[in-house]
Design goal:
By secondary structure, this protein is mainly alpha-helical. Helix content is 69%, strand content 0%.
Length: 214
């Protein structure tokens, strides 16, 4: 029965996505392919009867869509395939279809405006669509994610990452330092966050030595 529900939900999401995007028929291939990739992965690996037990994902190249998605899932402790909207958006992002991913995530947010993970994922998709630049839309998405769940670590982490990639190193440090200060000692992401903050401090020191920032 669980598989019937999964495929029924996937079909409903696909129909809703096609209605939302209003793309011409020639543009449906990427959306359908991304949905099939996500479903194939879940059929191959998914065990819906097991209790959730998130684990640290395998390493992917820093800044890649895979790395960003894996880090978001680790921060939010979200099992892969746990949300159909996010599953489809993640598949689209992995194929570089950031605009389509953003459309899917807007649909998720319309259904649940308090979905902090969807807001954070939307921010990442918009940053990816802009080639790594933090624009007003992405900034708004990250801020809305913080409003939706002030305790969630993903929004300030990815906002800081986007700021760093945009050259706003000091602002990025403020985001990460504040997040580290409120992160419990036993949090699984604390060591990684501290490591990234140390790297960022080195970048800031070098930029100041070169006169790039005061």
């Amino acid at each position: 029965m669980i598989w019937v529900m999964i495929f029924a939900l996937a079909a409903a999401v696909l129909l809703g996505l096609l209605a939302l995007t209003r793309r011409p028929r020639a543009g449906w291939e990427a959306i359908v392919a991304a949905l099939l990739v996500g479903l194939a992965g879940y059929v191959y690996q998914g065990q819906p009867d097991l209790a959730g037990a998130p684990r640290a994902p395998d390493e992917a190249p820093a800044g890649s869509a895979d790395a960003m998605i894996a880090q978001r899932q680790a921060l939010e402790q979200t099992p892969q395939g746990g949300n159909a909207w996010l599953m489809i958006a993640d598949a689209l992002s992995r194929h570089g279809e950031y605009a389509e991913a953003a459309t899917v995530l807007r649909g998720a947010i319309e259904k649940d405006p308090h979905n902090a993970e969807a807001w954070a994922a939307l921010g990442n998709a918009l940053v990816g669509h802009a080639g790594g630049t933090l624009g007003p839309g992405a900034l708004y998405a990250f801020r809305q994610a913080e409003v939706a769940d002030p305790a969630a670590p993903a929004p300030p982490f990815f906002l800081g990452l986007a700021m760093a990639r945009s050259g706003r190193l000091v602002e990025a440090r403020g985001q990460w330092a504040a997040l580290l200060a409120r992160t419990p000692a036993g949090a699984p992401w604390r060591a990684r966050l501290a490591e990234e903050l140390t790297k960022l401090d080195g970048m800031i020191a070098q930029a100041r030595q070169e006169g790039a920032i005061p």
